[in-house]
C-alpha cells in the first residue's frame, strides 16, 4: 500500500485504489492523464475514490491541467461528501516519473504550496504501460520526492 499525507499524518491507500489510478493513466496515453484521490473517514475504515479528470492542457503530451469547472465540481462534491483531497496524480508520457520544474511551479506558484497537505504522484507511462512512479510532498519549504515501487500498484482485484 502507498502512504499519503493527510492532515499532517500518513494514510495508506489500498492497492485496488492505486490500480484504478494506474488504469486511468495508462488509458490516457499517449497524452498525460490526471486526477485526484479523495478520502473520507479516518483510520482503516475510511473510504477512497479515484476521480479521473480531463486534461485540458494545450500541450497534453507534455503537460496536464485541470479544467477549472471540473476542479470546482470535485471540490464541491468532496465537501458535500465530507471528503478530503489526499492525492493529485498525473502521468509523464515516455519521460521519467519525476516531479518536474513545471509540476513544482503549478503546485507551488511563487514558492507557496496550493495544497500543502496533499501528496503528488507522478507515473511514467511508456508505450501505454506504467513504468515507474514517484511521490512528492511539501516538507521544510520544498517538495521532497521518493520513488514508488510499481508492485504496489499491480494489485488487481474486482472493484
Walk me through this protein's architecture.
The chain has 3 helices and 8 strands; from the N terminus they run E-E-H-E-E-H-E-H-E-E-E. The longest helix is centred in the first third of the chain and has 14 residues. About 3% of the residues have low confidence. A hairpin with a 2-residue loop joins strand 1 and strand 2. Helix content is 21%, strand content 38%. The protein has a 6-stranded mixed sheet. It has a two-stranded antiparallel ribbon with strand order 1-2. GO terms for molecular function: metalloexopeptidase activity; zinc ion binding. One of its GO terms (biological process) is proteolysis.
**Shape call:** globular
Element pattern in H and E: EEHEEHEHEEE
Q: What is the fold-level CATH name, i.e. the topology?
A: Cytidine Deaminase, domain 2
Detail the poorly predicted runs.
5-9
Amino acid at each position: 500500500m502507498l502512504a499519503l499525507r493527510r492532515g499532517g499524518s500518513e494514510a495508506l491507500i489500498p492497492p485496488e485504489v492505486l490500480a484504478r489510478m494506474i488504469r486511468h493513466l495508462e488509458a490516457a496515453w499517449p497524452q498525460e492523464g490526471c486526477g485526484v484521490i479523495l478520502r473520507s473517514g479516518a483510520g482503516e475504515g475510511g473510504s477512497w475514490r479515484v476521480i479521473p479528470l480531463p486534461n485540458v492542457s494545450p500541450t497534453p503530451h507534455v503537460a496536464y491541467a485541470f479544467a477549472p469547472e471540473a476542479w470546482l465540481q470535485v471540490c464541491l462534491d468532496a465537501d458535500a461528501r465530507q471528503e478530503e483531497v489526499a492525492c493529485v496524480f498525473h502521468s509523464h508520457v515516455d519521460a521519467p516519473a519525476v516531479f518536474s520544474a513545471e509540476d513544482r511551479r503549478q503546485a507551488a506558484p511563487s514558492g507557496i504550496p496550493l495544497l500543502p497537505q496533499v501528496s503528488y504522484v507522478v507515473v511514467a507511462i511508456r508505450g501505454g504501460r506504467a513504468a515507474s512512479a514517484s511521490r512528492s510532498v511539501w516538507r521544510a519549504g520544498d517538495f521532497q520526492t521518493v520513488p514508488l515501487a510499481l508492485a504496489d500498484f499491480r494489485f488487481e482485484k474486482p472493484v
